[in-house]
Amino acid sequence: MNKRSIRLVFDMILAIAISVSVHQLFEFIFNGFTNLHFSLVLVPLIWLALRYGASTAVLAAAMTGLINGLIDFHFSEWVNIILYEILPLLSSGLAGLFAKYTQKTLNNRRLKSTYLNISTASILVTLAYFALKFLIVPMGTGNLTELSISKLEFWASFALMAVAAAVLLCTAAKAMPRWIIPARTKYLTRKETSSLLND
């Protein structure tokens, strides 16, 4: 494996570990305490998508969902694990659509455009996650949803998660561009990459 592949695998493992830890922590803290569904589980996966693209994020999301599902559900409940844990997290791959222009604008120090790309990605991913987890999957399985789309809690939870993801990732992009743009990224030319590394 070359350095880029090693770094990609390391970042995947890091994103999965953080996502699983955050999910379990928020489940422990907020379970039964509030009707809001708030977790930062999507943030590391969106970061991975913006850094490496959709396919990497989708793979990491599937593994994250599997681990969370095995912890939250019984080992025999594979349908629930796939539908309620894995499938919603796959929405993080949508952020990969913004990877190229997020990295290009950040490399060119067009921070307003970078923030717009990151914020749009965060909103789109969070909306897809909520739609799958609390609307589409429950309707498809005939089960009651934890959060009804007609309730204020649904939209408050969505807004909190989307804003939190956008703020954290925009802050990371401004503070340390290398956290968003990896060395030898496929989204920048060699000249652009060397310019970034020499800063």
From TrEMBL:
The keyword Metal-binding does not apply. GO terms for cellular component: plasma membrane. Gene3D superfamilies: 1.10.1760.20. Keywords: Membrane, Transmembrane, Transmembrane helix. The keyword Mitochondrion does not apply. InterPro entries: Thia_Transptr_ThiT (IPR012651). One of its GO terms (molecular function) is thiamine transmembrane transporter activity. The chain crosses the membrane at residues 7-26, 32-50, 57-75, 81-102, 114-136, 156-176. This is Uncharacterized protein. It comes from Fundicoccus ignavus. The lineage of its organism: Bacteria, Bacillati, Bacillota, Bacilli, Lactobacillales.
